């Protein structure tokens, strides 16, 4: 099911998840932009492995994939204690990556449905339906967020924006969060240029965002992460638009490493800084960004690229793949439920309880 909301493929962008009822196909994002190769995951363990290895990545897409993983676990359960098998699959999926709360949000939702089921047959049907709902709702949220963001930006003429990482159709159920806003600006004829940070070390910006935007005819200029300050100094960029992996009750935002740098730069250059994320990314159980578990990945992601050394063999590396931007540096958090301007605990509670 590549197209959950009946939206045309063109409008939603290149969607990286295809649900077939008995298996989940994932576009292998490790191989882009040079190769378009789909991997078939037939069970929860395979889905967890794909999330861990970043075959599929991006907070919402991770949550959706995990939900389909639970649906697959139900389909394959039944050798012995089907309830224990499904709960074990949920545990395996929960251990795949730590930072994006969408993963745990989706698994909790699946587990609630699981506990309501009285037979394996019922669980198989209802868990598949719930995963499909999670997928559909994500696409709808992306479209709604683009509407809210456009109202907020309200551009009288075409503007340029800068973005970080990949937040597009590849990272979501389709359309995108921050890239959804960029798509909408383009659809309305209000986009001059997107500057895309290459996003070291995994290069989501150059390998995925530049690919996704070029494919959809959206004007993109790729820049090294270190060029962002120079670009803002030229005064051409009106907004920095990014996604999020987890937003806490006070409005702090965990997102791809390098996001915090951009927020500091935006404040210095008086450029708007907008975070676009569905409510599945909000974690009101954590009071501040200090409590967010930040994933650190293998140092080889920094030391080498596709096996080619970029640094002295064995050099010590620090590779946190997310950072936390304090709420005080954020002008607006845009969700499908509405916008929190100058986020703080009061604004967050008003919208998310
Ligand atoms: O490590 P990744 O590629 O999963 O990190 C992705 C990001 O940080 C995105 O900005 C975030 O998940 C929002 S995606 C709509």
Automatic annotation (TrEMBL):
Keywords noted in UniProt: Amino-acid biosynthesis, Isomerase, Methionine biosynthesis
Pathway(s) the chain acts in: Amino-acid biosynthesis; L-methionine biosynthesis via salvage pathway; L-methionine from S-methyl-5-thio-alpha-D-ribose 1-phosphate: step 1/6
Site-annotated residues for Transition state stabilizer: 165
Active-site residues, Swiss-Prot/TrEMBL: 245
One of the GO biological process terms: L-methionine salvage from methylthioadenosine
Lineage top rank: taxon: Bacteria
Binding site for substrate: 57-59, 97, 204, 255-256
Keyword Isomerase belongs to the record: yes
Matching InterPro entries: IF-2B-related, IF-M1Pi, IF_2B-like_C, Initiation_fac_2B_a/b/d, M1Pi_N, NagB/RpiA_transferase-like
Reaction catalyzed: 5-deoxy-alpha-D-ribose 1-phosphate = 5-deoxy-D-ribulose 1-phosphate; 5-(methylsulfanyl)-alpha-D-ribose 1-phosphate = 5-(methylsulfanyl)-D-ribulose 1-phosphate
This enzyme's EC code(s): 5.3.1.23
Gene Ontology molecular function: S-methyl-5-thioribose-1-phosphate isomerase activity
Family the UniProt entry places it in: Belongs to the EIF-2B alpha/beta/delta subunits family. MtnA subfamily.
Function: Catalyzes the interconversion of methylthioribose-1-phosphate (MTR-1-P) into methylthioribulose-1-phosphate (MTRu-1-P). Also catalyzes the interconversion of 5-deoxyribose 1-phosphate and 5-deoxyribulose 1-phosphate. Part of a bifunctional DHAP-shunt salvage pathway for SAM by-products.
Name of the protein described by the UniProt record: Methylthioribose-1-phosphate isomerase
Gene: mtnA
């Amino acid at each position: 099911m590549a197209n959950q909301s009946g939206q045309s493929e063109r409008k939603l962008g290149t969607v990286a998840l295809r649900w077939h009822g008995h298996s989940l196909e994932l576009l292998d994002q490790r191989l882009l932009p040079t190769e378009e190769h789909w991997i078939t995951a037939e069970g929860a363990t395979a889905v967890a492995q794909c999330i861990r290895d970043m075959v599929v990545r991006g907070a919402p897409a991770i949550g959706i994939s995990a939900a389909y993983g639970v649906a697959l676990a139900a389909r394959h359960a039944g050798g012995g204690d089907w309830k224990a098998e499904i709960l074990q699959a949920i545990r395996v999926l929960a251990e795949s990556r730590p930072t994006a709360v969408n993963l745990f949000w989706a698994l909790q939702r699946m587990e609630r449905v699981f506990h309501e089921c009285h037979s394996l047959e019922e669980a198989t049907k209802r868990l598949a339906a719930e995963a499909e709902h999670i997928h559909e709702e994500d696409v709808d949220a992306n479209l709604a967020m683009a509407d809210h963001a456009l109202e907020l930006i309200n551009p009288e003429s075409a503007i340029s924006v800068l973005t970080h990482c990949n937040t597009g159709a590849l990272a979501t159920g389709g359309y995108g969060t921050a890239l959804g806003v960029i798509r909408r600006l383009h659809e309305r004829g209000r986009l001059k240029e997107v500057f895309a940070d290459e996003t070291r070390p995994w290069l989501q910006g150059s390998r995925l965002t530049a690919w996704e935007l070029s494919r959809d005819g959206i004007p993109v200029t790729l820049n090294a992460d270190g060029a962002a300050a120079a670009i803002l100094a030229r005064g051409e960029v009106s907004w920095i638009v990014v996604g999020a992996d987890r937003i806490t009750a006070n409005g702090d935002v965990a997102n791809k490493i390098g996001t915090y740098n951009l927020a500091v730069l935006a404040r210095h250059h008086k450029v708007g800084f907008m975070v676009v994320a569905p409510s599945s990314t909000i974690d009101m159980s954590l009071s501040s960004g200090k409590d967010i578990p930040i994933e650190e990945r293998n140092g080889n992601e920094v030391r080498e690229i596709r096996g080619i050394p970029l640094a002295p063999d064995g050099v010590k590396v620090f590779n946190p793949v997310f950072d936390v931007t304090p709420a005080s540096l954020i002008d607006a958090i845009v969700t499908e439920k509405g916008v929190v301007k100058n986020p703080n605990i009061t604004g967050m509670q008003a919208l998310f309880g």
